[in-house]
Amino acid sequence: MGELEAERFLKRKRFRVLARNWRAGKDEIDLVCMDGSVLVFIETRTRTASALVGGYDSIDQRKRKALRRVCRAYLAQLKPAPHSFRFDVMEVRHEKGSVVDLQHYENAPLFSKDIGRGL
Q: 26-46 in b/e burial notation, b at 16+ Cβ within 10 A?
């Protein structure tokens, strides 16, 4: 539910979806999009409205490492490499099957800007 709602939201903002649930080995990125000329990797986090920890804050170090690996793998298969890219987080909160809030965190600082340089 959260990924579908996030995708609808992004399409209304004129993002172009390139891939859904793109995998590299055991790692996965929920959405890969274009926002104008910028490549955007998007992790969607869905939580109940009453959750104590929000979606953005639920991305722990282990998940960050997995996201770094999958983003690197996606970038490695692109020829030519994009001029710019960023990482966004979509937080979807629901209650009884209905979305009650959606937050879009653009350019989330989950890892260093050196990801594209093979670090």
A: ebebbbbbebeeebbbbbbbb
The β-bridge relationship of strands 16-24 and 27-35 is antiparallel
Kindly give the confidence (pLDDT) of every residue in the chain, 119 residues in length, as a single tens digit, with 9 standing for 90 and above.
Answer: 788 999 999 999 999 999 999 999 999 999 999 999 999 999 998 887 777 677 777 888 999 999 999 999 999 999 888 889 999 999 988 888 777 788 999 998 876 655 555 43
Q: What angle do CA 29, 1, 44 make, to 5 degrees?
A: 30
**What are the boundaries of each domain within the chain?**
2-117
Token look-up 């959750």 returns: 51
The answer to whether residues 21 and 2 touch, using CB atoms and an 8 Å cutoff, is no
Rounded Cα distance between 57 and 66, Å, is 16
Q: What is the dihedral of CA 31, 82, 77, 41, to 10 degrees?
A: -20
| CATH class held by domain 2-117 | alpha beta
State both tokens at 81: 């490499």
